[in-house]
Amino acid sequence: MPPHPDTWLRVLPQGLFCEPGDFYIDPQAGVHRAVVSHGHSDHARPDQAAVLGTPETLAIMTARLGEGRAGRTQQPLTYGHSIEQNGVRITLVPAGHVLGSAQVVLEWQGSRVVVSGDYKRQPDPTCEPFQPVACDVFVTEATFALPVFQHPPAQAEMKRLLESVALFPERAHLVGCYALGKCQRLIAELRRAGYERPIYLHGAQASMCALYERFGIGLGALLPVPRPAKRGETVLAGEIVLAPPSAESNPWSRRLADPVTAVASGWMRVRQRAKARGVELPLVVSDHADWPDLLDTIEEVGAPEVWVTHGREDALIYALAQRGVRGRALHLLGREEDEVEADVAEAVQAEAAGA
Amino acid sequence: MSLPAFADLLERLIFTPGRNAKLALLRRWFATQPDPDRGIGLAAIAGELSFTLAKPSIIRELAAGRTDPELLAMSHDYVGDLAETVALIWPEADPRPNRPPPDLSEVVETLELAAKADIPRIMADWLDVLDAGGRLALIKLVTGGLRVGVSARLARQALADWAKTPVEEIEEVWHGIPVPYRPLFDWLEGRAERPDPKDVPVFRPPMLAQPLETADIAALDHTAYRAEWKWDGVRVQVSAGPGGARLWSRTGEDYSAAFPEIMDSLDFHAVLDGELLVMREGEVAPFADLQQRLNRKVVGPKMLREYPAGLRLYDMLFDGTEDLRPLPFDTRRERLEAWFARVKPRAMDLSPQVAFVSLDQLSALRDGARAAGIEGLMLKRGDSPYVAGRPKGLWWKWKRVPLSVDAVLMYAQRGHGKRSSTYSDYTFGLWRQDENGGRELVPVGKAYSGYTDQELVWLDRWIRNHTTGRFGPVREVEKELVLEVVFDAAQLSGRHKSGVAMRFPRISRLRQDKPAAEADLLETLMAMVENRPEA
Ligand SMILES: [Zn+2]
Ligand SMILES: [Zn+2]
């Protein structure tokens, strides 16, 4: 009988550790060997000795963390290919979350665990779609694990944004979004909706867009936000500007013409949350699975046991129990509950650097 | 597709802080929606629709029947608002039933005719064909929880802008036309004459005064003017006649339900202009007392006993059906006095005229009047007709010189709309002895006006560079900057930590020259309080 996954995968302070393979998955601190699911800062930490990830994720890490801090050695592994590490077979499978995001499939002595990282099931023109893999234990996030979270189609939200742009031609539209993933997905969805004008970017967003384009994701005309010609003037009336969340509260935003502040995030589904942030146009666009997609995915992979890394594990484990699936909360530290807030620190740094 | 369109409108209105943006959203609604739905939507936003049978408990039970109770409880806990929780959690049928979502008119008509027992089924059928936004709009609409930050007055302003018609003309007929306002839209779109409100009480836009600045005083011929005290209450209009009676604020908000003692006395036929005040044996109570009454929609007997409201009259617009507004002020005053002597209305008195022989004398009177309830003086031209709006040179308000203290800036908050990137709301404090013999700052008020644009820029930068803590949108700052704050009155208040409330505080000067330690003491402000209990 194959060994139960809890005999060879453990939760240590640094994160999830594969004992026979001697490596961590998405560790929270620098370790000797790390497999990284995707490039977001709560999964891809600096100063790993050796890093394994998709070529896209490794490139994103280098861009975000800098040449010297994105793993002393980087080992690329493309989707669908496998390597063996001390007898543990590692395969990276698309997670549909952001460019290069992968589920880490681990097999040892006939037992299979899928560590899904962050994932979503909605279509996204900027990354490969999620592929379900049957397994004995499915390790999942639970960011939006409450039945109130049901993300509408992204195109419907783009329609709302474009209607607002048409209604307020004298105002700029400032859309706050995570610089990695959300930003590029919004641009691609706007292009799909037929929006062909240049899209303006805060400095923090531009470098990641350039990286996406290097990987063949076309985003159309992108321009930096210009400075007003004269003091006191404003720019970009009638245009769409993408910036890190909370940029609207920085003096930087004063150059924009009476901006409509929008934020694109799954949290925008709940009004109190949107109101508390002072958002004028909340857009419900998320790169995480919503409640129905979490449940459907778990059913599809057919795992009798599910481990929950972070988020609303109580609701998810409760719902799984009713379906006869054993749930276990891993209480992993350091995961960002709020995809919007996660970006603020980076944005502030970018601003300080004169972006 | 009208309920989803209405849901979109609500969604945008709720999140839009700017007045102009709200007006634009409403104009688009009037321009694009068909009758009768645009009128029903207008009524819903203006607070003139209500349903009695669809209670929040029905919504709770419906949701409980469709979802797991534990998950519903967790979700309610997270979201906070029940209507929103139900709207978000309602399981969407896949595929969605092949029925169109209801029109607003269908919702209104169906619920008016429905038997109580049928309402849960009717609601469920609608919820099944709507998306989350539509479900929330429906639930809020029928359970009466629409709070979109749009006053009836703003809705009428949008109507006026859209139809390019003065808002005063709309206000004169508004209260006489039932929902969905077909005759109103027919008139505004040029298909019919202006509707005639007949006997139904309608709001008459009031005549407003301009502030009297020092520069205007020299040019004033004082013999042409009459003087009255300017009362620190709320300007209202009463309209009574065979078609009913109403009490309105000066923006046309209906206060009738909140002031039954006034409504009880409206058994005459006239339209009157006056000040709503809390009065005890003819003595005007401070504004804070009136606020107790204004804050609630329904009043109990205790409130009525402890905060009795009255009306101090100063003008008469209609006597019976006769329109007095074209007559000179002096003539209207005579008519008002004669009418008052004849009718002797309960809960009302006349605002006396103040005799004077020179402006100097009047100025002295004004500054001497520190009694609670007096804000200054009103000057009205004896020959002025009653003109809606703020005509120049006919009526002046002459506020007494404001009080002032030097306070220390303690907290700052970002504003809304255009000011959302600027720290423009300031909480300031004064010194007081603490238990250990040291001194502490106590917050005494909040101001978000009075400064110039340059001062605002300076303050914003200063705040960003002197922040010591952050709580959401609020920054705590180093206690170093002194602000000169002016205000109209100081009143004792149990609701403020300092025990005192300031009326209309605003920043008059930045005192970068003054060390914070030399700012005023709380006692200084206390000494300015008007409603001290007699010792
Ligand atoms: Zn992520
Ligand atoms: Zn994450």
UniProtKB/TrEMBL annotation, chain A:
Q: Which UniProt keywords apply?
A: Exonuclease, Hydrolase, Ligase, Nuclease
Q: What is its EC number?
A: 3.1.-.-
Molecular-function annotations in GO:
exonuclease activity; ligase activity
Top-level lineage group: Bacteria
Protein name in UniProt: Ligase-associated DNA damage response exonuclease
Native organism is Teichococcus aerophilus
UniProtKB/TrEMBL annotation, chain B:
Question: Which reaction does this chain catalyze?
Answer: ATP + (deoxyribonucleotide)n-3'-hydroxyl + 5'-phospho-(deoxyribonucleotide)m = (deoxyribonucleotide)n+m + AMP + diphosphate
GO MF assignments: DNA ligase (ATP) activity
User: Which domain of life, per UniProt?
Assistant: Bacteria
Would the keyword DNA repair be found if you checked this record's keyword annotation?
A: yes
The UniProt keywords, alphabetically, are: ATP-binding, Cell cycle, Cell division, DNA damage, DNA recombination, DNA repair, DNA replication, Ligase, Magnesium, Metal-binding, Nucleotide-binding
Q: InterPro entries under this entry?
A: ATP-dep_DNA_ligase (IPR050191), ATP_dep_DNA_lig_pp_1105_fam (IPR026333), DNA_ligase_ATP-dep_C (IPR012309), DNA_ligase_ATP-dep_cent (IPR012310), DNA_ligase_ATP-dep_CS (IPR016059), DNA_ligase_N_sf (IPR036599), NA-bd_OB-fold (IPR012340)
> Does Transcription show up as a keyword for this record?
no
Which Pfam families does the record associate with it?
Answer: DNA_ligase_A_C, DNA_ligase_A_M
What EC number(s) does its UniProt record assign?
6.5.1.1
The record places domain ATP-dependent DNA ligase family profile at 311-432
Q: Which PROSITE patterns match?
A: DNA_LIGASE_A1, DNA_LIGASE_A3
SUPFAM superfamilies hit by this protein: DNA ligase/mRNA capping enzyme, catalytic domain, Nucleic acid-binding proteins
Q: Which PANTHER family does its entry note?
A: DNA LIGASE 1/3 FAMILY MEMBER (PTHR45674), DNA LIGASE-RELATED (PTHR45674:SF13)
Protein's UniProt name: DNA ligase (ATP)
Q: Which organism is it from?
A: Teichococcus aerophilus
